[in-house]
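User: Let's play a game. I give you a shape written as tokens, and you guess the letters that built it. Ready? Here's round one.
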């Protein structure tokens, strides 16, 4: 899994331009996020919060969309 450009999870206090977003997700998405959060916590990895996981996933998705626009399929 490649990391998006920039850090979607800067430290608290460095998110001045960020906007709050509320989202409702299907139960299976929530359960998968909880499992990944627990996996990271057990492994001692950073960004265990659900909001951090969602920011990472959204950043990767948006980068993929950008690539598809700039590099159309042949």
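Assistant: Ready! My guess for every position:
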């Amino acid at each position: 899994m490649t990391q998006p450009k920039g850090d979607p999870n800067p430290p608290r206090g460095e998110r001045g331009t960020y906007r709050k977003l509320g989202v409702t997700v299907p139960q299976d998405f929530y359960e998968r996020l909880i499992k990944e959060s627990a996996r990271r916590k057990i492994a001692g990895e950073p960004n265990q919060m659900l909001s951090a996981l969602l920011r990472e996933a959204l950043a990767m998705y948006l980068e993929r969309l950008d690539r598809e626009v700039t590099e159309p399929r042949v």
